[in-house]
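Hi Y.,

Following your request, here is the sequence exactly as I used it, all 140 residues.
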Amino acid sequence: MSETPEQGHGSFALVDGSNVAHSSEGPQALLGNILAVRRKLVEQGFVPIVMADAALRHQIDRVKEYEKLIDDGVVRQAPAGTDADYFILSFARELDAAIVSNDRFRDRQKQYPEARDRIIRYMVIGDEVVFERRTKHRHD
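Below is the corresponding structure, written out as tokens. Let me know if you'd prefer a different format.
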């Protein structure tokens, strides 16, 4: 039986921080999106782990707050020059975790075929977050 977001109960959820930060209209990456998604996951019983590309620190709107989250271990930053997707997918496999992202990870489908079953899609409007977890495969 696969878990739905409402049934987190201490399950890990890896948050694609760069994807979430860039999910709003406009060119600016928003720290508020990451915080809203993280808060919603906690409300639903998940243990969120936010992972982001190193480049996000140069794109985010509230740089000092973001840097503090990295220093405090709230946001985990992939090593410079590497793609956070690899780490997100690898840790999701290791931890049997959900993945919060609107990315389809097409370039890594062969290596991580189970990823599509882990993904929780989302939408952020202001401070509100809605999750969608598909229970059946949909052909893209």
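Residues 31-43 form the longest helix (13 residues).

Thanks again,
Q.
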